[in-house]
Amino acid sequence: MALNLIKQIAVIRQRLLATKTLSAKFYTGSLYEPDYLETGKPKFPLLSTINVQIKGYNYPVLECYQSFIHKLADVIQIDIDNGWPLPPQEFTIQKYKTATTIIMSKYYLKIYERNIQMSEVPSIKCSVLIRALEAALPQGVTLNINIYDPISEEKRYVPDKELIDLKASLDTLKNKT
C-alpha cells in the first residue's frame, strides 16, 4: 500500500512537471524592477524547519516506517537535514488480582523513538506529506509533526558522566579556596 502511494505521487509529480513545461510564461515583473529579482523567490510560503517524530513498540515496524518517510520525502523532493534515534523508554506494567496487592502478571514494554528533521518545506508539499504519512501510518505507531524546537534536539545527546564529575570536582575546588 505504501509503495503504491509513492508510485502514485511520482506519477502526479511527472504530470505536473510536463504541464509546467507546456504552459506559456507571462510577464510578472513590475515596471521599475527587473524580472530576475522575482525568479529567486518561492511561489508558496516555506516552513523553516519541521521535526517528524515517530514512536512505537515494535522496532522493525518503526524502522520500516522511517525508511518509508525518507523515500516519500525523496519522491516529493523534500530535503531531509537530519535524522536520529533516541534510546528506548522502558516501562514495567503490573496487573493485580482484584481487591488484592498480589501481582497476577508483569509486562516489560519499550517505546522506541525516531526523529526526522526537514528544512525549508513548501507549505503545499507539507500538506501532501502529512496526508500521505497519516494514510500509511502502521498500527501501534504514533506520528507527531512539530516546528523545530531546540529543546527536543538536546534530548538526543547523552550526558558524559566523567565530564560532569570533573566539573563538580572543579566547582568544589573553587569553593574551597
Observed structural traits:
4-stranded antiparallel β-sheet; about 180 residues; Alpha-Beta Plaits; ribonucleoprotein; Ribosomal_uS10_dom; Ribosomal_mL48
Write up what this structure looks like.
- With 177 residues, the chain is α+β, with helices and mostly antiparallel strands.
- It is 44% helix and 31% strand.
- The chain contains 6 helices and 4 strands; from the N terminus they run ααβαββαβαα.
- It has a 4-stranded antiparallel beta sheet.
- The radius of gyration is 25 Å and the shape is flat.
Total discrete domains: 1
Major sheet size, sense and barrel closure: 4 strands, antiparallel
Strand content: 25-35%
**Count of beta strands:** 4
CATH topology description: Alpha-Beta Plaits
**Name given to the CATH architecture:** 2-Layer Sandwich
Write the layout of secondary structure elements.
Blueprint: H1 2-22, H2 36-39, E1 46-56, H3 59-76, E2 80-96, E3 103-122, H4 123-135, E4 141-147, H5 150-154, H6 161-176
Antiparallel strand pairs: 1-3, 1-4, 2-3
Helix pairs in contact: 1-3, 3-4
Could you provide a short overview of the structure?
This protein has 177 residues and is α+β, with helices and mostly antiparallel strands. It has helices spanning 2-22, 36-39, 59-76, 123-135, 150-154, 161-176, and strands at residues 46-56, 80-96, 103-122, 141-147.
